[in-house]
Amino acid sequence: MNALGLSLIMKMGCFCSREIVYINNVRYIIKEKLGEGGFSTIDLVENVATKKCFAVKRIICHGVDDQKIALQEIEYCKKLKHPNIIELIDSTFKGSADIVVNATSEVFMVLPFYRRGTLFDYLDNRSINKDYLSVSEIVRMFIDICSAVKYMHDFKPEALAHRDLKTANICLTDGLSPILMDLGSVAPAKVQVCGSQDAQKLQDLAAERCSMPYRAPELFNVKSFCVIDERTDIWSLGCLLYAMCYFKSPFDAVYERGDSVALAVISGKINFPEDTPYSQETRDLILFMLNENSTARPFIDDVIEKVDEYIRVLDNKV
């Protein structure tokens, strides 16, 4: 069937009944669209047999390179087993797997549905009335996020980096436990850059896969001869903790104004809002991670140790 015929049937289906998708012989009804990104869409679906709801991530692949990236995401989802990393329930591949320049295929991933949405949604709702999170709530969620990141950074046989840690990539359970999702940007943590061609390739990949307000300085202007490692995630964790305190990344305002995020990030200057309930110790913890010098930036074990120290300081103040 050609693309036009399929498109027509899909449109007719919208008038006659809800769209049905089959994944490994399991039938799901698509109830609504949950989100859409540059590479995929996420739909809320219901298993026809069990009536249980799931999220289905549908990745459109335009050629073999896209297919490899999508299938790599599935492999990482299968390998990474941690209570704070999203579980892959099922997956399938539909379409041509042949190496054809204009071949189009689809990858489907069945994931748990989190009705609370993402940390981004949670913070956005609270920002309306400047309803700041308590320090205890922030620390509880942040230490779980760090645990998931440590699991990836310690992964064997090769350390992995997420490369796109941000509030929109963290789901929340009913009990507000964070679940790290969207493993499409996951890659081996250590990258040896040997020459300008390697540098440009990594820089282009970062521009495509790593969200600008959370992207580490070394990924904006990759040096021709350097080593990029898992500490790109530590920078993103600093931006993430900042957002948990102040509702947005330290560079979101720059991005929204249309100014150069790259220049703002590379400058290393972090501005903190006034009249907030957070102490200097909180700001120091954020700054500990936001070191623009990647070789001086801490590793995840250092961050967890610093968080433990931060908790002890707060306990002594009570």
UniProtKB/TrEMBL annotation:
Known catalytic reactions: L-seryl-[protein] + ATP = O-phospho-L-seryl-[protein] + ADP + H(+); L-threonyl-[protein] + ATP = O-phospho-L-threonyl-[protein] + ADP + H(+)
Gene Ontology MF annotations: ATP binding; protein serine/threonine kinase activity
InterPro entries xrefs: Kinase-like_dom_sf, Prot_kinase_dom, Ser/Thr-specific_kinases, Ser/Thr_kinase_AS
UniProt domain Protein kinase: residue ranges: 28-311
Protein origin, superkingdom: Eukaryota
GO CC, alphabetical: Golgi apparatus
Name under which the protein is recorded: non-specific serine/threonine protein kinase
Taxonomic placement: Eukaryota, Metazoa, Ecdysozoa, Arthropoda, Hexapoda
